[in-house]
Request: fold
Amino acid sequence: MDWLAHILEAQARYARCLDDGPLEAWPDFFLDDGFYKITTADNHRRGLEAGLIWADNRRMLQDRVSALRHANIYERQSYRHVLGLPLIGARTDEEARSETPFVALRIVRDGPTDIFASGRSLDRWRRVGSELKLAERIVVCDSSRIDTLLALPL
Reply:
């Protein structure tokens, strides 16, 4: 399997889903028992488990989307993800790891476009039929400071 080509496509589809929606499709990028966490570089380096967002299955991700749509109140905003090239790590026929740098721009409806976050995603991908699914995504933000509510996933 050409892991690089498949991961590039999966990453592009993931970013497009977050940036342009529908957000309800975001959990479908993960296995049923997929893990998702956003943390800081310092916490990651120190091996601290807590995250700004932490979910250990797809149902938790679906709940997050539901809360964003129906329960949480936050300033209307969107993101634009700019991705670097993934570095492919350990791989087998069925699974591969990758590290992908990113910058997320935050766009406020009637306001400026700002750099919201930068960092890298540490991913474990699993082949499911002809698709790749995330078994794990750990988003490691470069800064420990988040200027506003982390409403949407990265």
Remarks:
- The chain has one domain: 3-141.
- The radius of gyration is 15 Å.
- The mean pLDDT is 90.
